[in-house]
Design brief:
Helix content is 30%, strand content 15%. By secondary structure, it is an alpha/beta fold. Among the domains are: 145 residues, Leucine-rich repeat, LRR (right-handed beta-alpha superhelix), CATH 3.80.10; 128 residues, no CATH class; 215 residues, Ribonuclease Inhibitor (Leucine-rich repeat, LRR (right-handed beta-alpha superhelix), Alpha-Beta Horseshoe), CATH 3.80.10.10. It has a 20-stranded parallel sheet, sandwiched between helices. A two-stranded parallel ribbon has the order 18-20. Helix 10 links the parallel strand 8 and strand 9. The radius of gyration is 27 Å and the shape is globular. It comes from Toxostoma redivivum. One of its GO terms (biological process) is SCF-dependent proteasomal ubiquitin-dependent protein catabolic process. It holds the Pfam family LRR_FBXL18. This is FXL18 protein.
Length: 706
């Protein structure tokens, strides 16, 4: 009775949520999706009814990852608070019918609107923009069938006042660019395929009626990202032709991200020469062919640069220090640097150097000292081998960058130099060639806690120390320098992978365990770690990194067997916040035990499994989908037959599509010849963020778009 009386007294003395101040309640409510606030929460009591309509909560409405929103909810939301909305983000709402866009016309005061990934026709766009006279920022897709001649004079008047435009092109077109005469920021994403669905080759020439010239005189930021394909290159040249005639005086960010070979032409050379004479840049990214072998960087002028990307360039460390950092110039303004695939960037010269040679630590030290405020750094896709000099290891130098939030490194860069030289690589399938007592060969049990793991590997390793010094790191990528995904874009699946770097052979469970020191880690990518024996470090990460939202694992340990399956299942039981999971591993068995463990991830929304010769159990997949109610994307590219894959895909869609409007399911044989045709129908949001493997650290400038 005494215990009961004490509990009742505590309850009576407890603080009621409604007794908090309005400021605290508004802060709490800011974490609730706007649709829930307006359509549900505000109906609970009078106080919340008032607070939920506060301008701080209705000024900006984000629907881009509200996978439960449907047409009716959007209609009701716009009807209730449409006039209060100044910024509306519906990016990636691919599941909403095009008629949903009609309700945006109620938002008369809109200043920023993002409709990337939404189905919008020319006529609907014209009707909507005609009513949005205050619009200054717009993001749209330009799909086949888009006709700029259908835009009304009122629509063009609105576009003439737009200063920020993000345009994703799926067909050769200028889109609405010629109508935007006041552009200051232009972001272009070229996603045009070289062939139509019928197999016909497409041309990069613009359609009839697309001869209007873009207006770039006020342009401050130009960004273009190209998907693979020659048509994308042809179309972007047409956009650049106007820039080459007259370079905007206020241009301070010029960025072109192009995979593969994108040759420089006379027009682009004139553009770069004009930029070198007339502008001072704060952000720069160019195709590798435009930088390699040229003295361009020596002539370009920089003001207070915040972003550089020299991805896949043959730029040497000597040139990097002399021409970009000006021999150690103070670059405290630089917050993001992408040197992915820049194999000689930490060497004094590249003429007689092999890619596997040791780095020059003095170059990295100059970089760290000059760019001490770096928040995003990408050094992946290269062999950055440290020498045995004490205190000059890459990890030791990087530990000085205390502001880092995201980091991408090659696997071979994190191993201790002495260990990689003195100790031969550990191969789990190697049988001792000795006489005498027989030795039992198997997979050793893994330690269940961090203390046991620490005893197994001394904590004095340079990588362990690096992880301990970067306490606030949110994104980490450790990727093998020779790793390539089994599912590249616009090409058949790769059947054979290159062997890992020799220096990477000793990287395994202990290094993975070191990552568990990153308490605030939100995104983790591990690819081609050859010495994973049990995956014990994954359990440590699951226990310690409670903020982990995105996990991508690829080709860990032996290729013939998934040696870390038991540890992975134990890890998943602790990942309550995990939203995105991508697994790429040959012979992966997606069976009942795996999906039972995955069901503990109650926040999981997207799952992608890529496995050559992998198998799955259809009943287990269906049970998983039924228990994890938040899952809206299920992509599996395995070794099963086409019939098994199609039947499972149809069953999932038939069972769950009605209650999950955003559900996107693709289950298909990895090595099937029609894989590329299936991939082209995947929504760009999923394809770009999870399905296709790539390094995402410093991929583009921070806060490029909202």
């Amino acid at each position: 009775q005494e215990v009961v009386s004490e509990e009742s007294e505590e309850e009576s003395n407890g603080v009621n949520l409604m007794e908090f101040s309005d400021e605290i309640l508004l802060h709490i409510l800011s974490y609730v999706p706007c649709t829930d606030l307006v359509l549900n929460v505000r109906r609970t009591c009078r106080k919340l009814a008032t607070l939920c309509l506060d301008k701080s909560l209705t000024h900006t409405v984000l629907l881009q990852k509200d996978y439960k929103v449907n047409k009716d909810k959007v209609k009701q939301l716009m009807r209730d608070i449409g006039k209060e909305i100044y910024q509306l983000n519906m990016a990636g709402c691919y599941w909403l019918p095009s008629s949903t866009i009609d309700h945006v016309t109620r938002c008369k005061n809109l200043v920023k609107l993002n409709l990337s990934g939404c189905h919008v026709t020319s006529l609907r766009l014209s009707k909507m923009l005609s009513t949005l006279q205050h619009l200054r920022s717009l993001a749209i897709d330009v799909n086949p069938g888009f006709d700029a001649s259908q835009l009304s004079s009122e629509c063009k008047a609105t576009l003439s006042r737009v200063s920020e435009l993000k345009q994703t092109l799926y067909t050769p077109s200028y889109g609405v660019v010629p109508c935007c005469t006041s552009l200051e920021k232009l972001l272009l994403y070229f996603e045009i395929l070289d062939r139509s669905r019928e197999g016909f080759m497409l041309s990069g020439q613009l359609m009839v009626g697309e001869s209007n010239v873009p207006h770039y005189q006020n342009l401050r930021i130009f960004y273009a990202r190209l998907a693979p394909g020659y048509v994308n290159q042809e179309v972007v040249r047409l956009y650049l032709a106007v820039l080459s005639d007259r370079t905007p005086e206020n241009l301070h960010a010029f960025l072109i991200s192009a995979p593969g070979s994108f040759a420089e032409t006379g027009a682009t050379k004139n553009l770069l020469d004009s930029m070198a004479r007339n502008v001072r840049l704060d952000a720069l990214q160019l195709p590798k062919a435009w930088i390699n072998g040229s003295g361009l960087l020596q002539h370009l002028k920089f003001n207070n640069p915040f972003y550089f990307s020299f991805s896949r360039c043959t730029l040497s460390g000597g040139h990097l220090i002399q021409r970009v950092i000006n021999g150690g110039k103070d670059l405290k303004s630089l917050t993001s640097l992408n040197l992915s695939g820049c194999v000689h960037c930490l060497a004094p010269e590249s003429l007689f150097r092999k890619a596997e040679d040791d780095i020059d630590s003095s170059i990295l030290e100059s970089l760290v000292v000059s760019c001490c405020n770096l928040r995003h750094l990408n050094l992946s896709a290269a062999h950055h081998h440290s020498s045995e000099s004490i205190g000059n290891h890459l990890c030791q130098l990087l530990s000085r960058l205390k502001h880092l939030l995201s980091l991408a490194l090659p696997v071979c860069s994190i191993t201790d130099a002495a260990a990689s030289v003195e100790k031969p690589p550990t191969t789990p399938n190697l049988v001792p060639q000795t006489f005498g007592k027989k030795v039992r060969i198997g997979i050793p049990t893994y330690p269940r806690n961090l203390g046991d793991q620490a005893n197994q590997k001394i904590e004095s390793s340079v990588f362990w120390a690096l992880m301990g010094s970067l306490r606030f790191l949110e994104t980490l990528e450790i990727i093998g320098s020779s790793f390539s995904s089994a599912m590249p874009r616009n090409e058949p699946a790769i059947r054979n992978s290159l062997p890992p770097c020799v220096r990477a052979q000793s990287v395994g469970d202990s290094e993975v365990a070191a990552i568990s020191q990153l308490t605030y880690l939100q995104s983790l990518t591990l690819a081609q770690l050859p010495n994973i024996l049990t995956g014990s470090g994954l359990v440590n990460i699951g226990l310690q990194c409670q903020h982990l939202r995105t996990l991508s694992l690829a080709n860990l340990g032996m290729m013939g067997k998934v040696v870390y399956m038991s540890a992975l299942m134990d890890m998943l039981k602790h990942c309550r916040c995990l939203r995105d999971l991508r697994l790429e591993q040959p012979y992966f068995c997606a069976g009942a035990q795996f999906f039972q463990a995955l069901s503990h991830c109650s926040s999981l929304q997207r799952l992608c499994i890529v496995s050559r010769s992998g198998t799955l159990q259809s009943d287990a997949v269906m049970s998983f989908m039924a228990s994890c109610l938040e899952v809206i994307m299920c992509h599996m590219f395995m070794g099963e037959s086409l019939t098994v894959c199609k039947n499972l895909q149809q069953s999932i869609v038939r069972s769950f599509q009605a209650e999950r409007p955003a559900l996107n399911v693709v289950i298909f044989p990895l090595l099937h010849e029609d894989l590329t045709e299936v991939i082209r129908d995947v929504p760009m949001r999923h394809l770009d963020e999870i399905t296709l493997f790539k390094s995402r650290v410093a991929e583009e400038p921070p806060n490029l778009w909202w």
